[in-house]
């Protein structure tokens, strides 16, 4: 039911929603279906219906007493008569005003214009009299004079009559003015009358005299008076006319006002007519239309005329219709209520049905989804009966279990098959499931073809609402890959990537197990620490890859020598460990060590090269040499050092008496690591002097180590360790740079030819970038290359002649000089001097020391100096401590000397001071020869 229908059931409301003040005594006017007033929303609504009834009771429809009994026709006639009367009254007033205006104009004409006309006539006559008088005076003929005189008399008479008319006529001219005109005329007329006698007597001279002296003045005065009268009359006429015009204007305004009032009255009448007739007709029409279309309840009834009768008829009709409508509405309302009730019931039923259908559909979808998920699940799913016979198997499970030959409907599931799985486990699983519990675990399950795979299996009983177990659900995930990866990761964590041997971690674990076993059985275990001798040489000569291959081969060779229960591990670098479990005594360990050593007598084939490698082996026994894995390892390591010390290619048992010495070496090695970074090294400079002049030629840079732990450590204690560990390379680099920087300063300040000598170890020399590093430092520090002397020992020259020669030549190309240090201590020194391009040779202090006492040494030094000189080398004698030694060396023509007699090694500041002093006051450290 729409809004419009509801609106149709409207009530009757006051036009403004309340009683109009103007209608207090004249009755009430009602509007029906007003937009402003109260509206009916639901006429069948009981509350609203009650309101309408009470409203009707309070405001009953009634007739307006003001127009009671007067018909519409009568009212029209009365109003028409009234309008006509008003129009006629207006026309009468206009006519009256017009007549008054005409009369006033006539009066003005009479009072003003007529005297002016008369005056004009008088003036004309006066002039004719004067003209006649003058002509008369000029006439000489009697008859003519007589005639003219007669005419003059007649004109005087006419003038007098005209003047009388003027004076008697109503005029605005003041009376005293007219009297004066009459007096002047009388005087002029008397003078003219005096002409009669002389004319009769024809005394024309008299006539001329009178006309000239008596009448002329009187004529002029009269004429002037007439002009004044005319002027005043004209002014008075003008004033009267203006007054009349003003009055007429006022009357016209009044007329216009009356006309406007008349028009207004007409308009009001028309409005009244519109309202009383057409307005009501229209309202009646609108109300009737609303009644027909929108269900308006009643029409507005005003007055008691024909229209009111029509409205009342409509209202009666509407009342009947409304009564019927109301009955219909009640019936409809009841019907609607019943329909609503029924609809609501149907809706509830429908909703329930829909919900059920929805739930069913969702359940079906879920079932389909579940079934699809189970079908497509990467996890193997099997449903068995309680006997373990497969009732459902998903594709993933089929694949994992070995296709149709594996898990198949009707067969016993693999997990429950004691033939494919451990019988103990199968019974344990079944026991748990029967007890209604889940089972979860990792199984290595067999396939029909005999292969096995790892699976993570979850077993759950499928329990009915009755509590009975009907099936078992088996979820099986193939974790073979993960297992394999885990095993791989575990293997990597415990094995050396290169050799695939157990690494240090696993080795320590195995050693601990061996120790435990030995402890439990009161037995012995042995640990062998193996280090390959000079392995670096292999790397340097054949390359790192070949070194790797050799390590792998060496590992395999050692592994091949041992029992399966023994462990061979790579400890790191070129070091291997052998763990011998349950050895009877030291002899077993010794025979294994010897066996391994001998096994390495055979060469290795590395990339087609035959490589011989020897081993240094240290052995430690449990419990004799230590009861913990770490102590055994340390002691086996120390024993290995002993084997190295003993010349390599050998094995040693740990001996506690050797422990301390080795311990000291280990301590030095430990402290040496990082000493450079901690700034524990310094350089001292031992001057080299010119033998002949005693002047400073240069200095040798010597390294000193002040360890905060060990105190001052002599170079011969740590250089060898630094050489072995490779630490000598960065330390030597630091020496090179520091010495060159210092030399550059002294060359700048004191002597451009100042020489600086540094010692280079074989390992340092063999570094690939050594020569380029020397060139770089020289350039960086600004040191003239020929002032740098690089001292090497014979040890460098023992191996790799060609390589060393190449490096020497490269250094010479850079401009550096080369010195052979400790000349005479080796056996092949002389050959080396010939073979390598040295610039200088340094005779070892061992020969110089006894030069004064031992004739052999004297001969040896003399020969060495001669030989050096014959090869074009300069010669430096080291360790010169006495004047005798100096004298002898001078005698041998030795070029340069170095030793305490000349100067002890000095700090940089010390030598700086000496050099500064020598610059200011040249002096020599020793007396020149
Ligand atoms: N190719 C190769 N070389 C390695 C590996 N690990 C360490 N090395 C090298 O093995 C050498 C071990 O040197 P050391 O044992 O200190 O010295 P050495 O040359 O064997 O001399 P000694 O032990 O004193 O006889 C070093 O040069 C390392 O660079 C590796 O995995 N592969």
From TrEMBL:
<dbReference type="InterPro" id="IPR000014">
    <property type="entry name" value="PAS"/>
</dbReference>
<feature type="domain" description="EAL">
    <location>
        <begin position="665"/>
        <end position="919"/>
    </location>
</feature>
<feature type="domain" description="PAS">
    <location>
        <begin position="366"/>
        <end position="411"/>
    </location>
</feature>
<keyword id="KW-0472">Membrane</keyword>
<dbReference type="InterPro" id="IPR000160">
    <property type="entry name" value="GGDEF_dom"/>
</dbReference>
<dbReference type="InterPro" id="IPR029787">
    <property type="entry name" value="Nucleotide_cyclase"/>
</dbReference>
<dbReference type="InterPro" id="IPR001633">
    <property type="entry name" value="EAL_dom"/>
</dbReference>
<feature type="transmembrane region" description="Helical">
    <location>
        <begin position="76"/>
        <end position="98"/>
    </location>
</feature>
<keyword id="KW-1133">Transmembrane helix</keyword>
<protein>
    <submittedName>
        <fullName>EAL domain-containing protein</fullName>
    </submittedName>
</protein>
<feature type="domain" description="HAMP">
    <location>
        <begin position="275"/>
        <end position="326"/>
    </location>
</feature>
<dbReference type="Pfam" id="PF00990">
    <property type="entry name" value="GGDEF"/>
</dbReference>
<dbReference type="InterPro" id="IPR001610">
    <property type="entry name" value="PAC"/>
</dbReference>
<dbReference type="InterPro" id="IPR003660">
    <property type="entry name" value="HAMP_dom"/>
</dbReference>
<dbReference type="GO" id="GO:0016020">
    <property type="term" value="C:membrane"/>
</dbReference>
<feature type="domain" description="PAC">
    <location>
        <begin position="439"/>
        <end position="491"/>
    </location>
</feature>
<dbReference type="InterPro" id="IPR035919">
    <property type="entry name" value="EAL_sf"/>
</dbReference>
<dbReference type="InterPro" id="IPR043128">
    <property type="entry name" value="Rev_trsase/Diguanyl_cyclase"/>
</dbReference>
<keyword id="KW-0812">Transmembrane</keyword>
<dbReference type="GO" id="GO:0007165">
    <property type="term" value="P:signal transduction"/>
</dbReference>
<feature type="transmembrane region" description="Helical">
    <location>
        <begin position="254"/>
        <end position="274"/>
    </location>
</feature>
<feature type="domain" description="GGDEF">
    <location>
        <begin position="523"/>
        <end position="656"/>
    </location>
</feature>
<dbReference type="InterPro" id="IPR052155">
    <property type="entry name" value="Biofilm_reg_signaling"/>
</dbReference>
<dbReference type="GO" id="GO:0003824">
    <property type="term" value="F:catalytic activity"/>
</dbReference>
<dbReference type="Pfam" id="PF00672">
    <property type="entry name" value="HAMP"/>
</dbReference>
<dbReference type="Pfam" id="PF00563">
    <property type="entry name" value="EAL"/>
</dbReference>
<dbReference type="InterPro" id="IPR035965">
    <property type="entry name" value="PAS-like_dom_sf"/>
</dbReference>
<dbReference type="Pfam" id="PF13426">
    <property type="entry name" value="PAS_9"/>
</dbReference>
<dbReference type="InterPro" id="IPR000700">
    <property type="entry name" value="PAS-assoc_C"/>
</dbReference>
